[in-house]
Amino acid sequence: MKSSIFRTTLIAAAALAMSGAAFAQAGAKLKVGLMLPYTGTFASLGNAIENGFRLYVTEQGGKLAGREVEFVKVDDESDPSKATDNVNKLVKRDNVDVLIGTVHSGVAMAMAKVAKETGTILIVPNAGADAVTGAMCAPNIFRSSFSNWQPGYAMGEVMAKKGIKKVATITWKYAAGDESVRGFKEAFEKGGGTVVKELNLPFPNVEFQALLTDIAATKPDAVFTFFAGGGAVKFVKDYAAAGLKKTIPLYGSGFLTDGTLDAQGADADGLLTALHYADGMEIPKDKSFRLAYAKTYKLQPDVYAVQGYDAAQILGIGLKAVGGDTSKKAEFAHAVEAAKIDSPRGTFSLSKAHNPVQDIYLRQVVGKENKLIGIASKALNDPGRGCKM
Ligand code: BEZ
């Protein structure tokens, strides 16, 4: 009798100790580490992501899975050389429960490395670095945005189908530029086209003049480009000012004209781009999202705001499944893997490597809008090259 009481007490004590982490987490605030650019050429992208993320949390009453959300922020300046220190500040100094970030592919790869080493849940709300859901993939790493390959590949298919034969590419020399062009080239050359010249300049330089002169001399049938944020604004304006817009059609992944149209004005008119979001989609979830976003921030949302909102949705789905306990990594991942995410862009799910499988839209700039004109590539799944999961 005595020994059975002793055994029961031991079991109860062990159970209590085992659930200690969950117990400690249940009542505690959820510390969300936001690592985003708040300065530099991608500052407006970082702000839009944070706005979108906060909007979803606010819609849930400020709590996810019963835990009040607390933010800890770091400005990563889109600087890969500071990235490891910055992410370690959030993980080791601030003890965040989850990491949300970032915009720049090079910075995101440093975040993914730390997340992989420490097991911290990471949700990437923009950066398209193919490796994050490729060779670096991990059960605790998710992306709510796209891979760099996706919009590039979709635009390659569109331009080949149009019968365009010779294209020059121009972009920043870093992972996002290189991989967008690689995705474009893969589809475009498969469709019978040729990339006759690949031009680039270091990130975040915007001295385009010599490269524009090169394009004029090369006389391709069209140009494909990846630029985003402040750099995209300047590129579109410089392309038009050089007189090229009238003679050599400019195409891009949709970051070229997303969140930038106010500043680009008429110089962007008519441009065709491919992206996983567009204006005029007639999706009920998009309508309610736009209304709520405009009411809250007195601004129209862009693709970055959508990705921030969906990062929060993904976090909410995973947390709900584990009752708010971020130590239950496998259950968190299973729930997210099984989910259909009700996004303003249209419903999507995650691939085995945790990258969105999604429609890539063809859009055309009309006034201040990236008007939906068709689907460039239906349910496009990044190949997840090198991912072993
Ligand atoms: C990137 O670095 O992955 C990126 C930055 C801005 C827009 C899209 C992609």
Word description of this protein:
The chain is α/β, with parallel strands linked by helices. It has two domains: 26-146 and 281-354, 3-Layer(aba) Sandwich (Rossmann fold); 149-275, Response regulator (Rossmann fold), CATH 3.40.50.2300. 43% of the residues lie in helices and 21% in strands. The protein has 13 helices and 14 strands. The protein has helices at residues 2-18, 20-27, 43-59, 80-93, 105-118, 149-161, 175-190, 209-218, 229-241, 261-264, 284-297, 303-321, 329-338, and strands at residues 30-36, 63-64, 67-75, 98-100, 121-124, 141-143, 166-172, 194-201, 222-226, 250-253, 272-275, 349-350, 356-366, 369-380. Strands 7, 8, 9, 10, 11, 12, 13 and 14 form an eight-stranded mixed sheet that branches. A six-stranded mixed sheet has the order 2-3-1-4-5-6, with helices on both faces. Helix 9 links the parallel strand 9 (222-226) and strand 10. Helix 3 crosses helix 12, helix 4 runs parallel beside helix 5 and helix 12 (303-321) crosses helix 13 (329-338). The longest helix has 19 residues, at 303-321. Bound molecules: benzoic acid.
Q: How large is the share of residues in beta strands?
A: 15-25%
The CATH architecture of the largest domain would be 3-Layer(aba) Sandwich
- Low-confidence stretches are 1-20
* Helix vs. strand class: alpha/beta
Instruction: List the helices and strands in order.
Output: HHEHEEHEHEEHEHEHEHEHEHHHEEE
Mind telling me the CATH superfamily name of the largest domain?
Answer: Response regulator
On the 0 to 100 scale, the average pLDDT is 94
Count of distinct strands: 14
Principal-axis shape equals globular
Q: Alpha-carbon distance between the termini?
A: 49 Å
Helix content: 40-55%
The quaternary state of the protein chains shown equals: single chain
Q: Write down the CATH class of the largest domain.
A: Alpha Beta
Ligand kinds:
benzoic acid
In the CATH scheme, what's the topology name of the largest domain? Rossmann fold
Number of domains: 2
Number of helices: 13
